[in-house]
Specification:
Order of helices and strands: EHEEEEHHE
Helix content: 10-25%
CATH class: Alpha Beta
Number of helices: 3
CATH topology: Alpha-Beta Plaits
Organism: Nonomuraea endophytica
CATH superfamily: Dimeric alpha+beta barrel
Protein name: YCII-related domain-containing protein
Family: Belongs to the YciI family.
Pfam family, one: YCII
CATH architecture: 2-Layer Sandwich
Strand order of the largest sheet: 2-5-1-6
InterPro entries: Dimeric_a/b-barrel, YCII
Strand content: 35-45%
Oligomer: single chain
Number of strands: 6
Largest sheet: 4 strands, antiparallel
Length: 109
């Protein structure tokens, strides 16, 4: 099953002082196991463009749609047997300690 994992910042990071996992090791392990299909960091929220259509009119604005302290900073497309495996993959990601990871299954349309 495919999952989109949103990598987000968080205003309350972990206070554990042990060394964080290395992102390059995490990527290599999950790429090698075929669990990570794609992924990337994102440009800062200030570079975002929001697109909406209301009453047939195109509305384009600079920046993110919502003002929030937590932002999506990257993503990973995962292929895992089930949600339990996706959670274990997320658990080992460095941002699980300093941010938050949101996992959503992809659906076939």
């Amino acid at each position: 099953m495919k999952y989109m994992m949103f990598v987000c910042s968080d205003t309350e990071p972990d206070t554990d002082t042990t060394p964080e996992p290395d992102i390059e090791v995490w990527v290599a392990e999950n790429d090698g196991a075929g669990r990570r299909l794609d992924g990337s960091a994102l440009a800062p929220p200030a570079s975002a463009t929001t697109v909406r259509v209301r009453d047939g009119q195109l509305l384009v604005s600079d920046g993110p749609f919502a003002e929030t302290k937590e932002v999506i900073v990257g993503f990973d497309l995962l292929e895992c047997a089930d949600l339990d495996e996706a959670i274990e993959v997320a658990r080992a990601h460095p941002m699980a300690r300093n941010g938050r990871l949101e996992i959503r299954p992809l659906i076939d349309l």
